Amino acid sequence: MLLVDQLLSAFKSALREVNPSASVQKALSVRDGKLFVQNRAFELHKNVHLVAFGKAAPAMVQGAERVLGEHIRRGIASVPMKIDIPSGLKTEFCTGAEHNLPDERAVENTKRIEQFVSEANSAPDQLILFLVSGGGSALLTAPISGVSLNDKVALIRQVQNNGADIKQLNVVRTALSRVKGGGLAKLGRPSKMISLVISDIVGDPLELISSGPTIVSAKSYANPIAILNDLGILDKVPIRLVDALRSAHLEKDQYDPSPTDALNVIIASNSILLDNLANQINDCFNSLSISPFIVTNRLEGNATELGMRFAKLIKQSMVNGKLDRSMIADFDDDSQRSAEFDSQRVVVLFGGESTVRFDAKKATQNAKGGRNQEMVLSAFHHLAECWSDLPKETKSQCQFALFSIGSDGQDGPTDAAGAFLTNDDLEGLSENLQLASEIEQLLNSKCSYHFWSDYRNGKNLIKIGKTGVNVMDVQMLLLNFGRK
To answer: Which residue ranges does the record assign to the MOFRL-associated domain (predicted)?
Structure first.
C-alpha cells in the first residue's frame, strides 16, 4: 500500500522537528544582546551557566551552545553511561546511572551540579539555563541527610511494589532528595533561571518530569508520611528513615515557591509531535483529500487491551462505512469536539504510552517484543477472529492501515520502533488457520518481535533507528472509505 510509505515518511519528518537540538534552538533567540524565551527577555553578557541532565542532554547542549556561543561561561551535564557525546562542546559531561538506576557515580555528579549552581551566584546578573529530559530522575540523585543511596533505592522500590501511583511515588522521591521538587532551583537563587524541558510523561506534568528539580509544586510537597501510611507500609519502614522524611518534609514545607524562580518551558512533547504530524499529513496528502484528526495525547493502558480497542474501532468503521465521534469516544474524554468526519479519507492520530503486562506463567524464556509491536499484534489477533464473518462488500468499502511507533526508535529491547497492519494482512487469513493460531500463541508468550520478524520477512516491522527523541509513542489509523 503506497500510503503506508507516505505516512511513515510524514512521521519521520514530524519527528525531526522535535529533535532535542532543534527544539532547543527553536526555543532560544538571541538579538540585540538579549536572550528571548517565549515573551521574556534576559540580558546577555557572557553570563550563562548551562546545566543539563537526561538522555537527551548531549543534543540539547549542542543546540544551546550553537545559539548562545560565547555567552556561555561554563556548562555541566549528567548523562547516562555509554551515550554518544558530540565533540567540540564547551560543556563538561559526567556519566552515571547505569541501566537507568541511581548509583554512586550519579550521586557524585549531582554534588558537582549542586556546587556548580551555587557558584553561579558568585557574580551579579547571572543566568542559569537548565536543560531537562527523560532519565534525569536517576541521573540527578542527592539523598537527604540521614539517608544513604541504598536506603533511598530500597524505599522507592518498596513504595512501587505496594501500588503507589506516579504522583505518590514522586512525593516520596521529592522528600528523599535535596534537588528534586524545585531543590535545584532553590540553590540557583538569586540568579535568573530558565528551564527547557522535553516531556516524556503523559499530560506533561512539569513536577513529574525528572521529578521537577526546577519547579516547586504543591503536588510534590504532600506529606510523604501520609502516603506511606495510606500504602500500609509505614510500620515496615525503619524509624530512622521515617524521622529523616518527617524532618525533610517540615524543612521543605517552609520553602515558599516564588513564581520568578525559573521560567519552565516544555519545548518538545508528544502533543507537539502530534501537531507536527498532523501538519505533515496535511501538506503531504492535500491532493488526496486525506484529513488528519488528533484524538488524544493521553493514551495509556495495557498494550494488548488497546490493540483490541483499535480492532473494534476498525471493524465498526467498516460495518458503518464511516467514522463518527461516538466510535472514538472510547479513546478520548472530549467526546463533544466533533460529531462526524466529512472526509472519506481520514488519519486518526493518538499519542501516549502503553504498558506490557508480563505474566511469567505464559511468557517464554525467549520472550522479546515491545508495547507498540504488541498493540498491533493484538489488533491483528482480534480482527482475525471476526474477519471471515464480515461480508466481502463491507471489507471492500474501507481500506485501513494501523501503525504504532515509539518516537525513540526502540520498542522494548528490539531494533524496531513498532509495527503496522493493513487490510492486505487479513486477506486469506481464514484459510491460514496455522497463522491465526500462531498470532494468539506469540501474543500470549510476549514474543511480538519474533512474530513480526518472521511475518512477510519482517516487512511490517517499522525500523527507523535510534532517533535521540523520547516523547513517547504515536498511533496512526488510516481509514479510506473510498474504493481501492
So the answer is: 7-245
Return d(Cα 246, Cα 330) in angstroms, integer: 42
Give the length of the chain: 484
| C-alpha distance across the termini of the chain, in Å | 10
Contacts of residue 357, Cβ cutoff 8 Å, sequence gap at least 6: 302, 303, 304
Measured between alpha carbons, how far is 304 from 447 in angstroms, rounded to an integer?
12
Give the strands of the sheet with 263-268, arranged side by side.
Answer: 92-96, 72-80, 48-53, 127-132, 192-198, 263-268
Q: What share of the chain is helix, strand, coil (3-state, %, to 5)?
A: 45, 20, 35
Closest CA to 475 of 310, 341, 304: 310
What is the rounded CA–CA span in Å between residue 163 and residue 255? 29
Residue 119 is predicted with a pLDDT of: 94
Write b or e for each residue in 311-329: b if 16 or more Cβ atoms lie within 10 A of its Cβ, otherwise e.
bbbbbebbeeebbebebbe
Cβ–Cβ under 8 Å, residues 179 and 110? yes
List, for residues 304-334, the tens digit of each pLDDT value. 999 999 999 999 999 888 887 778 877 875 5
Other C-beta atoms lying within 10 Å of the C-beta of residue 8: 18
Whole-angstrom distance, CA of residue 310 vs CA of residue 324:
14
Q: How far is it, in rounded angstroms, from Cα 11 to Cα 476?
A: 9
172's CB contacts (< 8 A; 6+ apart) are 155, 156, 159, 164, 224, 227, 228, 245
Beta 473-480 vs 399-406: how paired, if at all? antiparallel
pLDDT for the residue numbered 335: 43
- Is beta strand 263-268 parallel, antiparallel or unpaired with respect to 127-132? unpaired
Omega before residue 391 within 30° of 0, cis: no
User: Which regions in the chain score pLDDT beneath 70?
Assistant: 1-2, 219-220, 252-261, 333-342, 360-362, 430-433, 483-484
- What rounded mean pLDDT belongs to the chain? 89
pLDDT for position 336? 42
SS (H, E, C) 90-112: CCEEEEECHHHCCCHHHHHHHHH
Inter-residue contact 118 to 183 (CB < 8 Å): no
Radius of gyration of the chain (CA): 24
Whether 278 contacts 349, CB under 8 Å = yes
Distance, in Å, from the CA atom of 397 to the CA atom of 318, rounded to the nearest integer, reads 7
What are phi and psi for residue 68, nearest 5 degrees? Answer: -95, -25
- The 40-43 sheet, strands edge to edge: 29-31, 34-37, 40-43
